Amino acid sequence: MKTQIAERIAQALKKLEIHFPLEKIEVEFPKVKEHGDYSTNIAMVLAKELKNTPRKIAEELVAVLSEYKDFFQKIEIAGPGFINFFLEPSAYHEALKNVWDKNNELVLPNIGNNKKVLIEFLSANPTGPMHVGHGRNAVVGDVLARLLEKVGYQVTREFYINDHGVQIRTLGRSGQYYYKRLVGDINDEQLADDVYRGEYLEILVKKLKEEIKELVGDTLLIGKLLGEHLLEKIKVELERLDIRFDRYFSESSLYSKGKIDEMFEALKDKTYERDGALWFHSTLFGDDKDRVLRKNDGSLTYFSPDIAYHLDKFERNYDFYINVFGADHGGYIQRLQAAVEALGYETNRLEFILMQMVNLKRGDEKVGMSKRSGAYVTLGEVIDEVGPDATRFFFMMRSHQTTLDFDLELAKKHSSENPVFYLQYAHARICSIFNKLSEKGENDSLSEANLDLTSLDLPEELEMIKLLLKYPEVMMQAAVKREPHRIGFYLLEIAKLFQNYYTKGKLNPRYRVLEGEKEQIQAKFYLLTAIRAVLRLGFKILGVSAPEYMEAPEAEE
Fold first, then answer.
1. Distance in angstroms (rounded) separating the CA atoms of residues 491 and 475
2. Gap between the Cα atoms of 433 and 435, Å rounded
3. Regarding the domain delimited by 121-251+356-410, which CATH topology (the fold level of the hierarchy) does it fall under?
4. For the segment 368-414, what is each residue's pLDDT rounded down to a tens digit?
5. Which CATH number does 2-87 carry?
6. Using an 8 Å Cβ cutoff, are 451 and 523 in contact?
7. What's the confidence (pLDDT) of residue 373?
8. What are the sequence ranges of the domains in the chain?
9. CA angle 377-379-384, nearest 5°?
């Protein structure tokens, strides 16, 4: 619809002998509903070039645009020169017929143009169960990947495995401790401060007792053994949320394949020695201070393999790279950008998404510790309690830039208070209507080409159509701004309009899909078909199922 309006503006400009490229004409949704369906600032954009007031330019444009009487119901000039458009219902009816492509799928904007993107997300340390913070990172990363694919990108999902260094050695010491306690060599009083605690580790060590027996004394190998098994458990939990990675990248491979040495060679002119340590001169590339790469004892800092990993990423030649990090990694952004620039790559190809914290709650009470993990409620426990659909959707209920309160009790409710239930029930209700229409034989002769939609003249029907036609813009903005939570908000708006429309049908026959003349029934059927398609598209991107039958909400029973 925005394109159609922009084309008419371009035609009007041409008639006025004003040359302005179509692709630069901006058409937006007014923030205030009373200001129209769409708006443009073209008059203000042209004012300097035409050496005229925006309002005078707007008046000339409106005089020409008013000729499109079958498209514009009313055109107003507001403020210094904004032009607000009110469209004829017939314009919306025709636009509704054009939401399908040749395969009867919803038309989607192709902003990716097959560009390749590597998105690294989650990358949880394989030292224990995932917590809810990991869950948010995993779901947001997965939804963003799905969204980017839908708008035309080639997406690779990557999980970086921290299987080298301090954490793996600590895991190895922990495994050795639990093994010795299992065979009676030590008691609880000998538990060291730097040992991972939790029933999950005791259970795993018991399961791997014989393998660990062969490795006692070599904490690194014990750590790698336990890490491999814990990573498999992580993969199983992710499968429950329908999250899969295209590649698991091992940190250890950076050492075995010489990537660490390659990184040092690439940065040799950007490093210097001081106090026995090797420093990266990162302040030359915008960092706030220089960074140590190798300590004076010869060991590497965490930053060194991080740089080597990003060197490997860029050598794989993607068009751009997205890192989904926890908020505690905010300090890494500047230094990694400095490293990428120092390696000779464009920093604008590397993006960062910082995930804020999750508070797990039951109503107003904060949820605390978990026996199984030893410190926190695990992601697996959340999935067990509320199911994968609610788990995924609730992680998407707020922007990743804000702290999220995850209410376990709300996520389990079978009522309209629960947003995921509310959405799924709207979809199931539409499916129920379709089943009844099928039984009546009313949906067997639907043809978009000659379908008459003029009977869709109720205010609520036009509101649904207007909102429905915004779906390409919503998808595009969610992708461009890397804000996939917008999709959930949008779906809830659609569901609310439909549910209100359906409820009015209990009192007013005009709102009932199953009653009226054949043309009216078919027009309503067509509208609900489009609504269901948009809901399903959103569900697919969010990774939420689309049930066709559900029990009535608790308030309606």
1. 11
2. 5
3. Rossmann fold (3.40.50)
4. 755 444 567 899 999 999 999 999 999 999 999 999 999 999 999 99
5. 3.30.1360.70
6. yes
7. 45
8. 2-87, 121-251+356-410, 419-556
9. 95
